[in-house]
Amino acid sequence: MLYIVGLGLSDERDITLRGLDCVRKCDKLYMEAYTSLLSFGLASNGLSKLEELYGKEVVVADREMVEEKADQMLTEALESDVGFLVVGDPFGATTHSDIVVRARQMGVKVKVIHNASVMNAIGACGLQLYRYGETVSIPFFTETWRPDSFYEKIKNSRQLGLHTLCLLDIRVKEPTIESLCRGKKVYEPPRFMTINTAIDQLLEVEAARGESVYNEDTLCVGIARLGSDSQKIVAGPMKDLRDVDFGDPLHCLVIAGETHDMEGQMLDFYRRSK
C-alpha cells in the first residue's frame, strides 16, 4: 500500500490522528521536500522532529527523486507499506496526482489522508473561498526569462469580480545553468519568493502589458506562514504592501476582486494602521 499523507501547514503536530496511525505502521517513509516547506526543524537529539514523533527514519524526497525516480518508491509499495508525506494536502500539487496515476497503473494500492492546505486555509484572510477565481503561480524572473502567463488569468478573474490567490515561487535544490552545461550538477541556495518581490514583478508585467488589470492601488492581502503561530496577514494596496516586512517564508498573495460587506469588515482587521 502507498499512503499519501498530508501534513498540514505549520509543524510536525499538524498531522491528523488518522495520518499518524498510517505513518506509524509504514515500513518506509518518504517526505516530499520541494513543492512546499514545513517548519519541523531539528529535535534536541539531532533527529528531525518528524522522526522523533513517528519513531522512524524519514527519507527526504527532492524534486529529482519525485519526478524521475518515483518508480523505486512505487515498487517498494507493491510489497510493503510505504508512506509519502506531503506538506499541506496531497492534491495541492499536480506532481502528487501524477504519482497516484502511476501507482494505479503499476497495480499499487493507494490510500490518501487529507489535511489543511493553502487552498482552504487562505480563507483566514477574510475573503470567502467561493469568491476566488483561478489560482496562479508567480515564478522568479531572471535576466532572460520573465514569463507573464499569470496576467491573463488574473485579468479573467478580475473581470468577474473574483479574488486571485497567487502562490509564490519556491526554489529548493535547483541546479545552476552553468553546472548543467558542464554535466555535473551544482545546486543554487534555496530561495523563497517574498510578497514584496511578487508585487514588484506583478507591477512590471502590468507596465509592460498596459491593460489596466491592476495597479499599485489595487487592494491585496499578503499572508506569511499561513497556519502557524507566527502567521502574518496584512491587507492594503499593492504600494503599501511592497514596504511591509513579512518575515520568514512561506509567503502568498491575494489580489482582491469585488468585496461585500462581511469581507470588508474582515479585511479591516488586517489593514495597516496609518
From TrEMBL:
Organism from which the protein derives: Rhynchospora tenuis
Pathway in which this enzyme or protein is active: Protein modification; peptidyl-diphthamide biosynthesis
Domain Tetrapyrrole methylase span(s) in chain numbering: 1-241
Official protein name in the record: diphthine methyl ester synthase
EC number: 2.1.1.314
Taxonomic superkingdom: Eukaryota
Catalytic activity: 2-[(3S)-amino-3-carboxypropyl]-L-histidyl-[translation elongation factor 2] + 4 S-adenosyl-L-methionine = diphthine methyl ester-[translation elongation factor 2] + 4 S-adenosyl-L-homocysteine + 3 H(+)
Pfam family, one: TP_methylase
Transmembrane segments: none
Family (UniProt): Belongs to the diphthine synthase family.
Positions contributing to S-adenosyl-L-methionine binding: L9, D89, G92, S117, V118, L168, L226, H251
Single biological process term from Gene Ontology: protein histidyl modification to diphthamide
Any one GO molecular-function label of the UniProt entry: diphthine methyl ester synthase activity
Record key words, sorted: Methyltransferase, S-adenosyl-L-methionine, Transferase
First-tier enzyme category under EC: transferase
InterPro entries membership: 4pyrrol_Mease (IPR000878), 4pyrrol_Methylase_sf (IPR035996), 4pyrrole_Mease_sub1 (IPR014777), 4pyrrole_Mease_sub2 (IPR014776), Dphthn_synthase (IPR004551)
Function as written in the Swiss-Prot or TrEMBL entry: S-adenosyl-L-methionine-dependent methyltransferase that catalyzes four methylations of the modified target histidine residue in translation elongation factor 2 (EF-2), to form an intermediate called diphthine methyl ester. The four successive methylation reactions represent the second step of diphthamide biosynthesis.
SUPFAM superfamilies in UniProt: Tetrapyrrole methylase (SSF53790)
PANTHER family hit by this protein: DIPHTHINE METHYL ESTER SYNTHASE, DIPHTHINE SYNTHASE
